[in-house]
Queue: 3 jobs
Job 1
Amino acid sequence: MSTEPVCVACGMQYPAPRTACPICEDERQYVLPGGQQWTDLATLRASGDRRARVEEQGPGVLGVGSEPGFAIGQRALLVRTGSGNFLWDCAAYLDDELVTRITELGGITGIAISHPHYYTTMVDWAHAFDVPIHLHEADRQWIGRPDPAIRLWSGTTFDVTGELRLINLGVHFAGGTVLHWPGGENGRGALLSGDIVQVIPDRTHVGFMYSYPNLIPERPSVVRRAAELLEPYAFDAIYGAWWDAIVRTDGHAVVQRSAKRYLTYVQETV
């Protein structure tokens, strides 16, 4: 397992030691109160503090991560389609048990990630399964560990398979992306949103933020555009970034009324 440095706060991996983590120094994230701290996957594995976690989150959707979590703590999602398994987003922790369990499920055909906070150890994941990573080119500057496995796409939509479409909404980051699966939820459709469209405790609504930890709201024009882009897509469920953070029904209407509510309260500023 790799020994490339990994930021303790956000999980971003870099190819060589450094003093600062650009992701954490950005206003959307933060440096830990005690200062920048580093680890690596080999050290995390050797500690024995974590175990692999693979659990069903919905029809054809498995959560993938660790217990306890690490860094930001998000879990990835393994989407089980007719054309193979696809990994949405990336958990920072990876060990042999996770690789074995996912391999026993049929492996994965590719990886796509919603935004830079979840890039983390994506290169190790890609190498473990010999698959490409699909990232939006608007977030190129945030790639911590460049690698030939990374494939940049541009524009508003990109079909990673015949069953899965990436949609660049531009929320949270310029390249902020969601994944639409028309066949999800037994044909009713699913939206895998990371925290580009944030599933909140009130499952009747979702949230839109430029920074979640620092409570900076997203620009109204961006939220308006995101709602317009998602309007033509049918989806019943919305799968967020955290374990069991799921809107189970009426997802399309949830997004549209949430955007309308947001725009009612937040005015465009100069």
Job 2
Amino acid sequence: MIELEGVPELIDPVMVAAFEGWNDAGDAASGAVAHLDREWKGEVFAALDAEDYYDFQVNRPTVFLEHGVRKITWPTTRLSVVRIGGAKPRDLVLVRGIEPSMRWRSFCNELLGFAHELGVEMVVILGALLGDTPHTRPVPVSGVTSDPDLARTMDLEETKYEGPTGIVGVLQEACTHAGVPAVSLWAAVPHYVSQPPNPKATLALLNRLEDLIDIRIPLGELPEDARAWQLGVDQLAAEDSEVAEYVQTLEEARDTADLPEASGDAIAREFERYLRRRDPSAADPSDGSYLRDTSGGPRAPKRKPEPPAEEPPTPEEPGDDSPEG
């Protein structure tokens, strides 16, 4: 355990968390937190004790050599802090780890203990699920919360999901019971191209996070990686007539469902994001088989154009109609 000593007093801190595993289709959510940590040069200040929460036969430690000395890296969850510069500086507490194997309530209580000591004002948990969404269209991202007041003031969905859940759902409910405002952002990843990484879904989560907490995130090479990813999937899909036909069907369904989104509000949101990115004072970037569904991660409902308000159960087949969340 790394102690909290040495952590400076934080400015309007928001905790942003993501966990590898069932809640992280295409590694989109963990990739988003890793991007924040890398771009703002996060400094680790705490790590949860791996012995308390992980089954090492499920998440095995790794051995590596450092200057000829063998060392072991244990699977765990680490916390780091980054400071966002600009006209209105603020801090992010980044939580990145693996979905725990056991003692989930204690795991959440320990994270909330850190949040309380650091004065965290809100917790944002990132997740990604498998859905019937075409890779050629913008990635759907849903923002959900268990707090009716937060849903109203921040234009979020109030979660109504019932069914199996993962650590994202458990942590969100723990925050609610502790009186800590909490939001989950879910990106839908095409189930027919579920293998990581998925930079397009990672980019969509970061864009939605920008809007949610009013910051500017330096994106680096991520937009170009997202374009290259889509081009690669385009080429692979074109080689299989059945996949190409299926993608076209998904496109038609998505376009029909999204017609109401071609509204003034949607255009205004995109224009505001564009203006923020033109403003250099908004933030200081120097701070701080491929088309097969082989993932066991959560799936979005087949007939709903947007991902659900919680994590879904493990899918049986790409086209199944099992409930999700």
Job 3
Amino acid sequence: MKVLANDGISKSGILALEKGGFEVITTKVAQEQVANFVNENNVSVVLVRSATKVRKDIIDACPGLKIIGRGGVGMDNIDVDYAKSKGIHVINTPASSSESVAELVFAHLFSGVRFLHDSNRNMPLEGDTNFEGLKKAYANGVELRGKTLGVVGIGRIGQATAKMALGLGMKVIAADSFIPQVDIKVVFFDGQAITTTIVSQSLESVFKEADFITLHVPAQDGYIINEAALAIMKDGVGIVNCARGGVIDEVALVKALESGKVLFAGLDVFENEPTPEMAILMNHKISLTPHIGAATGEAQDRIGTELASQIINLLS
């Protein structure tokens, strides 16, 4: 059987699938040509990340499709319920990228509190002529240790982020409508570990208490952080979103950054992907990455081998 990995798959995933008797196609097929390609090449499995969408039109047009797989967590680019109603298996890899995304959250947090994103823009331009001026401009850094991190969504990635925060000496609070409490176990290099329990509290209380806020939620119908939410946050709050675009009102965020209400933001995802608004891209208070939360070699290896394992178990 043939597998189309339209958004790519790790070498380890390819080898595992080939060992299981599958032919893996890594040709990048344009969105509008996916259905034709699947049918013409008798593809049984389509694997995607966040770029390719597998909607009702493709599902209806491809009666031979047996599995749709998402390399990662969120499946908002797949019509999951409709696919299942047609007898198609829908799989994903919810645990494989948690650590990588959590580390990116902290990359943005460290960047924000020490102005690295802006310093890295300005040092090449002014470092030789305005060194002392830049030194003064970036002199008011903030430590993360001892501060309160508000985690909105304490699922796998939220928990991985909480572990890193606890290891750094931060206080962690969380809001989650589906997880009332969770035990977080922080394991150290020598096998020792500590465990602490985080009890979910209201979203409003997290917004009011947190020094920094990180979002780990699926795509929503509306904004989680809007003008009203920003108004009740602490002055000088830092906000990071490595989850999904569209959960923050970007217009309200820019306004809050300009007023000083928000100290900085770290964004890996955007309302308008792949063409984020210029007001976001040019704002010197925003640390920016192009949706790369799971883009580490380790995460992609885990994603590839986990997808391969699920496919082999389902179709062998």
